[in-house]
Give the backbone structure.
Amino acid sequence: MAQITLTIDAVGATVPEGTSVLEAALSAGIYIPTLCYDKDLEPYGACRICIVEIEGMDGLPTSCTTRAADGMVVRTDTERVNRVRRTICEMLIADHPADCLTCPANQSCELQQVASHLGIMQQRLEPLEREHVLDESNPFFKLDLSTCILCARCVRACNELRGVGAIELVGRGYECHVGTFLDGPMVESVCESCGECVDRCPTGALSAKAERLPPTREVKTTCVYCGCGCGLVLGVRGNRIVRVRGEAAHPVNRGSLCVKGRFGLDFVGSADRLTAPLIRRDGELQEAGWEEALELVAGRLSEIKAEHGPDALAGLSSAKCTNEENYLFQKFVRAALGTNNVDHCARLCHASTVVGLARAFGSGAMTNSLGEIEHADCILVTGSNTTEAHPIIALRIIAAVERHGARLIVADPRRIDLVRFADLHLRQRSGTDVALFNAMMNVILGEGLADEKFIASRTEGFEQFRRALEECTPEWAEPITGVPAGEIRAAARTYAGAERASIIYSMGITQHTTGTDNVLSLANLAMLTGNVGRPSTGVNPLRGQNNVQGACDLGALPDVYPGYQKVDDAGVRRSFEQAWGVPLPAEPGLTVVEMTNAAAEGLLKGLYVMGENPMLSDPNVNHVREALEKLDFLCVQDIFLTETARLADVVLPGVSFAEKDGTFTNTERRVQRVRAAVDSPGEARQDWAIICEVASRLGYPMHYDHPSQIMDEMASVTPIYGGMSFERVDEVGPQWPCPDAEHPGTVYLHEGEFKRGRGKFHPVRFREAAELPDEEYPFLLTTGRCLYHFHTGTLSRRSAGLEELSPPAPFEIHPEDAAAEGISEGQIVQITSRRGTVRARAVLTERSRPGMIFMPFHFREAAANLLTNDALDPVAKIPEYKVCAVRLKKAHESSPGC
Amino acid sequence: MRFEQIQQKAASAWSEFTDPGRPRILVGTGTCGRAAGAGEVLQAIRSHAPQAGLEARVYEVGCLGLCYAEPLVELSGPGLPRVLYGGLAPEDVPGLLRDYYEHGDLRPDLALAVMEGDSLEGIPTFKDHPMMAGQVRIVLRNCGLIDPGNIDHYIARGGYAGLARALAMAPQQVIEEVKRSGLRGRGGAGFPTGRKWEFCRNSPGDRKYLICNADEGDPGAFMDRAVLESDPHSVIEGMAIAAYAIGAGEGYVYVRAEYPLAVQRLQEAVRKANEYGLTGDDALGSGFRFHVRLKQGAGAFVCGEETALLASLEGKRGMPRPRPPFPAQKGLYGRPTNINNVETLANVPVILSRGSGWFAAHGTEASRGTKTFALAGKIVRTGLIEVPLGISLQKIVFGIGGGIPEEKRIKAVQTGGPSGGCIPAELLRMPVDYERLTEAGSIMGSGGMVVMDEDTCMVDIARYFVEFTQSESCGKCAPCRLGTKHMFGILTRISSGEGRPQDIELLEEIAEAVKLGSLCGLGQTAPNPVLTTIRYFREEYETHIHDKKCLSGVCKQLVTFQVNEQKCKMCNVCKENCPANTIEGERKKTPYKIVQSGCTKCGICFDACPFGAIEVV
């Protein structure tokens, strides 16, 4: 970008073209006081404090809204400028209570700072009498209008950055104030409680409720909730987290956070935390010493191994734990237990991605980076309720549309929140994704919109693929998918017509018996239009858990070692045998659902679960319970007594993310540091240390002094992590592949060449879901997440505020269906599938298609997974969470339940 | 249809309208007329004409501008002159119709003017009517003279000839023609219209918008309303020409929802212009595509400001944003947009049809053409006027307006509405143009003109306008939102006798911060009423502050009502009327006396006394 030079207070400043005078001054080290400026928001020019004099311009332009120009001469500190600034500041202070000493913003208040800079000493103006309005309805923050200076940073952040628009300036003249629609309580507005407004407020008008005393120190770490991988700054006082803010310079969240990350970390200091090992005695779990517990675990595992062989044992690793812990856990299972029966919840979310994208491209991860989304011309979001499940990634999508004019296509059976920003909403019947995408590709081929050069030079298998699409016209797809043919055509043209088109998907695509086919279809679509291997394009699966990417990368999967190296490849196996110093099993192990089935059949005898909760997260939970109860030995290592831990023989207390050092890998393959901020409670031990203890007692000594040593070892056996070390990932984590210390990391994959050489087209034929509604079970049930909770709720449901904002056990039903069934809002309804029954609270909404109901799966009170179908995708072994058939009946009980 | 055919059709409709062989009655039923009872008069005419055996054609027309004389009715018939009558009540109708049509009695007692031909029976011709003499009607050329719902009337009087001529020219030539005319924005700021168009034309973008700002919001201003109600096609034609010049395919009229009649007339006009092929997909077969849509404002004064108007059009809260980028660069939906007000656009067809030279012959060197004003306040003839720029205030007030009623002395003229200033009587000889008004501390504004007499308190006037801008400030920027509030507070305390010695300086300092610091024109001009009243009437402020007196008797808390014992006839009327029961006295015994401790200064006794014995001191 061209550079320009201007003179500010006789100082020369050279800045890129387009820089504002204010920013130019700041870059030249010249302070201009301001109250409404925020570098992340559009210039607003409302506080009028940043006025300056510019030669050749009339009046006093605001420096925040005036672009610096070459040769411009600016004076920021003249008598007239300061006189007007002072008068304006005096007016603000006359409209502000004089209660600085008790204000939550005392010492961080920007009005204080500006007034002090301008030397406002005396009050010449009569204080204005403002009605004191305090909105404390939100559980996490309060709005005190008396201290508001109407800089509108909150309003703009809510609109511009979050796309929510819960607050706006309301009223005219002196009555103008920040308010919600019709001035209702904040909590009844569309507010998502992300706290962005609180973060941006320069005064005490918006303040967090919990924050009575400021933190005494801050620790940078990575959020533990979802796969976004936001940079958190934990504010600690004593041994307590008292404030959380987003890391402003972080490449993913740029200072923003969602409600869970900012306000939902109560679980760390929860009184429910496990503080000592538990051993089942006389049917009851009772506290025990570490020595006894570890001996028991090692002893029982050894016995089972000796009696039934190593494959009678299995381990479930954890997408919540660090890379180091996952590496160590799979090494423990393979080297110490001697089996490849290791898996984790990735099986339940993106197994089909890992398989599908590996087949098509050679690598099963997000092809592109989160930051690139903003610059795509067209974004196809399918099967991802991004604003709720990946709130910070949704911000990039919204910015692409709102700031950069991207076209957004949402293909989702539900009218999710993103539809507000979409050009097109294709509302396909659940489970008909292949038909929909095939029809789009039929149009692209038929209308000559394909990228023939890309197809010819970068791909293979095109002919066979093309032939398979011949029948798949939009008219063919319309009755299958329920999407009008015209909309399919429009979507195809929009997607294919874009210079940079990006596909974003998540579990609405993967959690089907056709999950792998769905993923392959999307890969086909991207290759057909040449949208792979370039910035802001690609096929981008959003990973659900904070470290599900890392758990996969580090080999917590039954068929691969760290770095996706196949266990049935003899060469690979030999090198791991060498590295780990033991012979290793050659056969791939059992996947999650296969473990359950094996346990139910009595083939699997012992299971070691680290940080997972299959009793809520796996499909067909009744079946899971039977299986777990049938085990000879169940060991659970966790921070809470989860539904699964309650069934265990031994429970070992681990530590939370806020108490440990390590790394997480986010959904864009970025390896990021996790840092201990507080001490762990009671006798809880570091998870990696527990694994070492158990392994050593099993006769396989493991010893590390610090997780960084584990990282070094794992980098030495994992080529894609070859260049990683704690030192390397300290500030900004690089994205894998990063084979050596000099490698800069990889922002987007498949540039120039696919990982597998040529991209491979796969002909994919439409198949129906395993279980469809019928006369007996007339409704289609689909499941997913909601904004305020995470997964089985082990963490999020320990926040009273989140619980208040999202009361338990809702299910969504279309008002027409509700009317036909005689169901009213809030009513408790019995929902029954072929596998179980729950009672949930009806929420009437047009978000759901008629004939379809939706349930979040966070709530043990009405566990959605009692109902879901454990039918598997034949290739990826992922269960079909997204489609099953249920029937509804009004319940007699007044509360949700199972 | 070719334009010549359209004109022929229009000509025959016009000759039917003007057919002297049949009785014709025109009733001015603009909002102003209706407010004065034109609806009832119209009804009376419709019911009495047939009774009187009269086969009269009755038309509703717009506003002639003689508001003081509403409702207005024009009669004509075979062998009878066109005579304008004013101030009619429904009960006047039967007699007037009988006298005029049966007896040929022109009723000079009710007549205002002869509309065509010479003066008769002492009734002046319309152009010699004292209110019309000195006016030049370009913008108001058709107002009150045509049926605003009839597009043929507009065309027959030269309408759409400007568009036809423009479409035969290159867009740049149209811009040049407007530049040569010297037309400046009539919304208040006076930016040269041609240059504004050129700016927008030269902005890169394949989609541009043309917007007519019809959000007339100044209290007491009704120029645009009159044009929209009385001659909507003049605005539509102006918009089409402007759109062609800048390269816009879509136009919006942003019109106040409080102008229901204007909205209705505009909707009808847009429909008709499309039907005639004057606008639409292929205007007059030229290939020029132009569609007009209406958007009704929700009543915010600030939405008259260009960027706030754009925000409102986009469905956002109507708040101004900083410029640059100017609307011509990034306007509606981020695309180049040109915004002109109603009066500006209504001038455009004439510039094109009669030529820039003809237009530029009116007005002064820097301020060409005419300006409409809504003349109001303490003046004999209130109404809507159009005068060549450069005319003196003196001529407007004492010539056209007929001076001050009740032989009071004039104190000041306020121009430019709440954003304007008060020009003192000493400056009445000042010519009315953009620059001179600005020099005097006021602005041209959109055309409000309020005349103030000696009974007007200038502190109170400043307070009134600041109260208005305070309540209409959008609240976005601090100086406007808070500065107007503080100024209002200080003016209130001055007018209630609690003024402090340093208050004038404080007002000036706040005014400076508001003027220099505010984001948009609303705030930048909001201090004008305060600053001009301080500038020209400082002693009034000082009297309020130091002597605690309001010599105009307006600031009630600074006024003492007393009984003049010499004049008091001891009639007891004051005592009977006093709501505070604070007047003592006995009928026909002793002069009455106001007990000051109980007096609420309501002034009822002052008004009630038949002998003028209650005095203000």
Notes: Chain B has five domains: 3-128, 160-360, 370-453, 458-547, 560-616. The radius of gyration of chain B is 27 Å. The longest helix of chain B spans residues 528-547.
